[in-house]
Write the C-alpha cells for this entry.
Amino acid sequence: MSATGDARQTGVVIAAHRRHFEVLLQTGESIECLQKGRERQLACGDRVEVVRIAGGGAIERIAPRDTLIYRSDAFHEKLIAANATQIAGVVAPGLMLDEELIHRWMIAAEAEHCRFVVAANKRDLPEFVALTRRLSSVTRLGYPVVELAARHDVGPLIPLLSGQRSVLVGQSGMGKSTIINALAPSAATRTEEVSTSLRAGRHTTTATTLYPLPQLGEGTWIVDSPGMKAFGLAHVPPDVLEHAFVELRPLIGKCRFRDCRHDQEPGCAVQDAVACGEVQPFRLALLHRLIRESAGVRSPVV
C-alpha cells in the first residue's frame, strides 16, 4: 500500500464493511479506503485523514470522537455511529413492537449525552391509536414523540433532524428505509453501489450507512442502521446507567446508604419514588437488568 504523493485529505466515514470504508472527503468526492493498522474500529461518522493510493485511499488518522453509539453483550460489540448528537427511534403499530427496546435506545442516548426522539410512523393505520397509548411512558419522561406517515410526508420529523447528526434505529418493518429515501432521494441507488464496492451485500438493511442532509443545515447527517431485535448495553458502567435514567437523577445520593442498589434496602429514595408513582416500576426493573448485564463484561472500545 503506497501513497500516490497527494497530501492528506480530511473526510467522514459514510459506510463500513470490515476494513473497507467509504469516506466522503471535504471536497465532496467519496472514495473507497482501507485502514492502515488497527488503531481502533471505525464507524460511520468517524472523522478521518486519508492519503491517496492506487485504487482509492488509505486512512492514516482517526480524529477523537465526541460520542460513540454502539451495542454490546457479553460476547460481541457492534459499532453504529461516531460523533452523533441524537438517536431517533422509529416505531410503528403492531404486536412485534418491543417497548423495552425503545427504552434501551433512550438509555444509550443518555449515556452518550445525546438527544433522544421517537418517530411514531404509520399514523394512517387504525392501530395507531393503540401505539400512542403504548408510547405514553416515553412522553411521560419528557421525550418528543413525532407522529408521521412516512410514505406520504416526513415533514413532521424534519425540525428535530435539522442541525443534528442523527442515528436512525428501529426494528425491521417500522419504516426506517422509507424515511431515509424521503430525506435522501438518492439513498437506494447509493446504498446498492456502496454495498457492491464494499462487498457488504445488496440488501439495504445489512449495513450501516451515513447520508449527508445539507438541506437541513451544515454538517447535518443521518445514519441508517440495520433492523435490530436487541440492543445490549453491557459496555455502560453501572454508575453511568443510573444517571442515564432521567427520572432517577434527582434521587441519586438521597438514599440512606451510599451504596444503595435500589432493591430492598431501607431508606431507598428510588423505591419510595416507585411507591409514590413518581418512577415507573418497569424502569427500575430495567435498571437492575442492565446493571446485571454490565457486571463483569465491560471493556472500552479502542
In short: The chain is about 25% helix and 25% strand. The longest helix spans residues 281-294. The longest strand covers residues 9-17.
